[in-house]
Amino acid sequence: MIAKRIIPCLDVKEGTVVKGTNFVSLRELGDPVAMAAAYSKSGADEIVFLDISATHEGRATMMDIVRQTALHVFVPFTVGGGVRKLEDMKTMLQAGADKVAVNSAAVANPALITQGAETFGSQCIVVAIDAKRFDDGWHVVTHGGRKDTGIDAIEWAKEAEARGAGEILLTSMDADGVKTGYDLPLTKAIVENVRIPVIASGGCGSPDHITEVFQQTDVSAALAASIFHDKTFSIEEVKQNCQQEGVRIREA
């Protein structure tokens, strides 16, 4: 079994790390460069950096922050937010990112996934899927959860894989920031329908939630924000809990 990964997520708006509930009620938490550097030193396996307002506000990701963060992070580093075309991917990778995450623009233009994979390699392309439960299943939502596309999340994950995505970052909008645990039915449904690695995101409130998602689904990684940003638990504590419960985890 491949060792599971623990990934802190830095949601950034207007140059500041923020966190909310169900993608709203955001509160400011700190400097993204300093926080990313601290996580890199404290055992994070990877770091995800998302400019969460870039697409909605119609502006590019803040590349100066990306460059500075990349200088201080020594683990794989994914950057997303405002990626609209191949040139945006190139800019992020040249700034120091190891991977780029695409969401709204890929839904609008699925060929962007294929173009990115063919140009930079599948290992560089992460398709971020924000999903919300509706009566007929889970729909893909975009623009920071503001727009229901009506697209079935499972079918979209399968298409993303077919188009060359190397990984899926799956966020449950229903669970986001609620801290009651990951959306296990959604996560399991996506994992069972694709072969590429899936990162679970949305709802983590304790180390037990991370252990639970690893034990009950075959996700490759668990992403969390609030428990790390608020210093409720450390990355080391999360990894120790996983090890105690028999989950093979990368050592801090």
UniProtKB/TrEMBL annotation:
It is found in: Cytoplasm. Heterodimer of HisH and HisF. The keyword Chaperone does not apply. Pathway: Amino-acid biosynthesis; L-histidine biosynthesis; L-histidine from 5-phospho-alpha-D-ribose 1-diphosphate: step 5/9. One of its GO terms (biological process) is L-histidine biosynthetic process. GO terms for molecular function: imidazoleglycerol-phosphate synthase activity; lyase activity. The keyword Amino-acid biosynthesis applies. SUPFAM superfamilies: Ribulose-phoshate binding barrel. Belongs to the HisA/HisF family. Its EC number is 4.3.2.10. It catalyses: 5-[(5-phospho-1-deoxy-D-ribulos-1-ylimino)methylamino]-1-(5-phospho-beta-D-ribosyl)imidazole-4-carboxamide + L-glutamine = D-erythro-1-(imidazol-4-yl)glycerol 3-phosphate + 5-amino-1-(5-phospho-beta-D-ribosyl)imidazole-4-carboxamide + L-glutamate + H(+). The active site is at residues 11, 130. It comes from Terribacillus aidingensis. Keywords: Amino-acid biosynthesis, Cytoplasm, Histidine biosynthesis, Lyase. This is Imidazole glycerol phosphate synthase subunit HisF. InterPro entries: Aldolase_TIM, His_biosynth, HisF, IGPS_HisA/HisF, RibuloseP-bd_barrel. GO terms for cellular component: cytoplasm. IGPS catalyzes the conversion of PRFAR and glutamine to IGP, AICAR and glutamate. The HisF subunit catalyzes the cyclization activity that produces IGP and AICAR from PRFAR using the ammonia provided by the HisH subunit.
